[in-house]
């Protein structure tokens, strides 16, 4: 690799700040897109859970229908037996035989009552399940419509930003090539240690950007002279004067619009 041409401190600061503007724009693109996939994933998981619940409710309905059919069969069998017992009573020969048939008849009557009670309970549960299914189906349709909208939004963002992100990433790599490896390492280290990814910031109202700690006038003058790289003692960020920052913002924003 060809050796980098030695450049002035001011040129290094400008190159670093340019790189920061580009990387910050890439961060913005990824942050906007980064929230939507999570929302889409959450909705997909929620819908899968609702589908599973709906399938379970439907299976329970089928079980209740089977239960009603079983109880109906029990009632029919019991009635058939009661008819047979009535015929037997016409031909009883003694009290013992009579009492035995009557007990069997009473038992079948109890079976009928129990089966009828169970049938009523099952019908109540069926109505409750059907109401739950109706509500859940409505909620599921709403969630699916919401998911479709979110997917459309994500696809739109992807189409709008994919090209810009690709081009900016290439520009970021190109700008890195222009900067001293030692500075790039420091820049990336600072970016990784701060929440907003800002490793190099301008002076704003006598303090480093995003900070409330005032920078002494003498240090501000040194920063404005652009003769050496100065870092904020509180945040560790590299500092530049506001005029340089404004100039580079105009330049890089114009470049980004031209991509």
Summarize the structure.
By secondary structure, the protein is mainly alpha-helical.
Please give a structural write-up.
This protein is mainly alpha-helical. The chain has 2 domains: 31-162, Helix Hairpins; 181-257, no CATH class. It is built from 5 helices and 4 strands. The chain has helices at 9-89, 95-178, 181-193, 217-225, 242-257; strands spanning 200-204, 207-208, 230-231, 238-240. It has a 4-stranded mixed β-sheet. The chain is rod-shaped, with a radius of gyration of 40 Å. It starts with 8 loop residues before the first helix and ends with a helix. The relative contact order is 0.14. The mean pLDDT is 91.
Specify the CATH class of the largest domain.
Answer: Mainly Alpha
Largest sheet, order of strands side by side? 2-1-4-3
The proportion of residues forming helix, as a percent range, comes to over 70%
CATH 2nd-level architecture of the largest domain: Orthogonal Bundle
Biggest sheet architecture: 4 strands, mixed
Task: Looking at this protein, list some descriptive labels.
four-stranded mixed beta sheet; rod-shaped; Helix Hairpins
């Amino acid at each position: 690799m060809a050796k980098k041409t030695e450049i002035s401190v001011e040129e290094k600061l400008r190159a670093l700040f340019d790189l920061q503007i580009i990387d910050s724009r890439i961060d913005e693109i990824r942050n906007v897109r980064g929230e939507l996939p999570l929302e889409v994933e959450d909705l997909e998981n929620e819908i899968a859970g609702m589908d599973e619940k709906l399938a379970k409710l439907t299976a329970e309905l089928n079980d209740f229908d089977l239960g009603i059919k079983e109880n109906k069969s029990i009632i029919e069998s019991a009635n058939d037996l009661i008819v047979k017992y009535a015929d037997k009573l016409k031909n009883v020969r003694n009290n013992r035989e009579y009492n035995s048939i009557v007990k069997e008849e009473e038992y079948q009557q109890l079976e009928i009552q129990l089966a009828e009670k169970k049938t009523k309970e099952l019908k109540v549960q069926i109505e409750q399940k059907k109401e739950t299914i109706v509500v859940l189906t409505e909620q599921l349709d709403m969630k699916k419509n919401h998911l479709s909208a979110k997917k459309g939004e994500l696809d739109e963002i992807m189409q709008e930003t994919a090209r810009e992100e690709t081009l900016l990433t290439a520009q970021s790599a190109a700008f890195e090539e222009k900067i001293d490896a030692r500075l790039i390492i420091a820049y990336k280290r600072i970016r990784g240690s701060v929440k907003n990814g800002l490793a190099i910031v301008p002076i704003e109202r006598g303090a480093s950007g995003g900070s409330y700690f005032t920078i002494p006038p003498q240090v501000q003058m040194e920063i404005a002279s652009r003769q050496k790289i100065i870092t904020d003692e509180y945040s560790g960020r590299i500092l530049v004067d506001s005029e340089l920052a404004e100039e580079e913002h105009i330049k890089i924003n114009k470049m980004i619009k031209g991509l």
